[in-house]
Structure formats: structure tokens, C-alpha cells
Specification:
Keywords: Membrane, Transmembrane, Transmembrane helix. There is one protein chain. It contains 6 helices and no strands. It is an all-alpha fold and about 130 residues long. The protein has one domain. About 5% of the residues have low confidence.
Length: about 130
């Protein structure tokens, strides 16, 4: 049972990592230090999708599930709702490439905004805040 709980925890970690890769740049608008964590995550996530690298969380989850297979645990929330989001049926290489492209486009847009905001003249910022 402990292996099953650990495997479910890995699935949740996997989901949060995917969400962080996709939208973590939005956190950088508020907290600039997030960039140091987010950019490597984006590069890794894009490489997994575009190049076809394997994510280390997948084999970890699979080994934990194998260790807990003897448990007669019925399907729960994690298996029913979270797992299909991470491992959808019919996922093809072409879809993975599109997903990798979406990750890159979203993050290029967010970081482009951050760069634009930092390069704006300070006087323009002060004028806008007074209005």
C-alpha cells in the first residue's frame, strides 16, 4: 500500500511539474527568482516532448506501481482523473511535438513580456502610475 501511495505522489508531482513548465513563467512576473527554476524546467519539458527524451518520473512511478501490484487497491481519484491528463490515450509523436511547441510559445510570450517590462523607461512607468 505504501508503494501505491508513493506512486500516486509521483503522479501528482509529475502533474505539478507539467503545469509549472507550461505556466510557471507567469509566476516570474510576480517573483523574479522563479526564473532560475523555471527556465531549466522549460528546457527539460520541451526536450522531453520535442526530442523524445524520457522523464525520470515515469520509470519511478512504474517501479512503484509494480512494487504495489499485489495490493488489491481499486481505482481512485488519481487513477481516474490525474493519470489520463498526463498519459492521454492516443498520444502520438506528432501531438508531443505540438505540445512541446505550445510550451515554448507560451513561455517565449511570457518572458518576452518580462523583458519588455524591464526595458521600458522608468519615466514611462512613473507616468502610468500617476494616471
Amino acid at each position: 500500500m505504501l508503494a501505491r501511495i508513493a506512486a500516486d505522489g509521483v503522479v501528482l508531482l509529475h502533474l505539478f511539474f507539467i503545469l509549472f513548465v507550461l505556466a510557471g513563467g507567469l509566476l516570474a512576473i510576480r517573483w523574479h527568482w522563479i526564473v532560475a527554476l523555471h527556465l531549466p524546467a522549460v528546457l527539460w519539458g520541451a526536450a522531453v516532448e520535442l526530442i523524445g527524451w524520457s522523464c525520470p518520473l515515469t520509470p519511478l512511478e512504474n517501479s512503484l506501481r509494480a512494487a504495489g501490484a499485489e495490493e488489491g487497491y481499486s481505482s481512485g481519484f488519481i487513477d481516474h482523473y490525474i493519470v489520463p491528463l498526463i498519459y492521454p490515450a492516443g498520444l502520438t509523436r506528432e501531438i508531443q511535438i505540438v505540445l512541446g511547441g505550445v510550451v515554448l510559445l507560451v513561455n517565449v510570450g511570457v518572458y518576452g513580456y518580462l523583458i519588455y517590462r524591464r526595458r521600458r523607461p522608468k519615466a514611462a512607468v512613473h507616468r502610468q502610475s500617476r494616471q
